[in-house]
Specification:
alpha/beta; about 180 residues; about 55% helix; globular; 9 helices; Rossmann fold
Length: about 180
C-alpha cells in the first residue's frame, strides 16, 4: 500500500507520517530528498534553498520531477510519502496506485506549530503571506481532490484515530 500525503505548512503531515511509520510503513519524504541533495552540494539546508532546488528540478524536468525521483526508491511493502506539493506529483503517485491524503488545520494553529519548532515568522500575517506563496503549485487543489482529507485540529490521539480509519477504509475497499 502506498499513501501520498500533502497539506499546507505545519498542517500535520509529518506527524501523520510518523504515526504510519509506527504502524510499519516505510517513509519517504520528497523534502528529505532535496535536503540530501543540498548537503551533497555543500549548500545550507534552509527553507529558501529547499524551495529553490525544488523549483529548479521542476523547471528542468517537469512538475512531477520529485515524484519520479522518489519512485526509484520505492520497493514492495507499505510506504508513506510526504511533501507532495504539485498536482502532477499527486497524479503521478495516484497512477502508481497510491491513495492521496490531504491534511488540513487552521492557519493560527499551523502558525503556532511552526513557531514551536523554531521557525522565525514574526507574525501571523507574515506566516500567511509565506503560506499563500507556498500555494503556487496547488496544494489546496490536491487536498480538495484527495482520497482522504484529515482535519488536524485536535489531539495526536485524534490524528492517530484518523490514520486508523484511513487504513480500515482502504482495507474494506480491498476486501470488496
Amino acid at each position: 500500500m502506498i499513501l501520498a500525503v500533502t497539506g499546507r505548512i505545519s498542517a500535520g503531515e509529518t506527524t501523520l507520517c510518523e504515526i504510519f511509520e509506527r504502524k510499519g510503513f516505510r517513509r519517504l519524504s520528497l523534502s528529505d530528498m532535496l535536503r540530501e541533495r543540498l548537503r551533497e552540494q555543500g549548500k545550507p539546508v534552509v527553507r529558501e534553498t529547499l524551495l529553490e532546488l525544488g523549483d529548479s528540478l521542476r523547471k528542468e524536468t517537469g512538475m512531477a520531477a520529485l515524484a519520479i525521483l522518489a519512485w526509484e526508491k520505492v520497493s514492495k511493502g507499505d510506504w508513506i510519502i510526504d511533501s507532495i506539493y504539485t498536482i502532477e506529483e499527486a497524479e503521478f503517485f495516484r497512477k502508481k496506485g497510491a491513495y492521496v491524503i490531504g491534511v488540513t488545520a487552521p492557519a493560527k494553529a499551523r502558525f503556532e506549530r511552526t513557531r514551536a519548532r523554531g521557525e522565525k515568522f514574526s507574525s501571523l500575517e507574515e506566516f500567511i503571506k509565506f503560506d499563500d506563496y507556498d500555494q503556487r503549485w496547488g496544494i489546496d487543489k490536491i487536498v480538495s481532490e484527495a482520497d482522504f482529507i484529515i482535519s488536524n485540529d485536535g489531539t495526536i490521539e485524534d490524528l492517530e484515530g484518523c490514520a486508523d480509519l484511513v487504513l480500515e477504509t482502504i482495507s474494506s475497499f480491498a476486501r470488496n
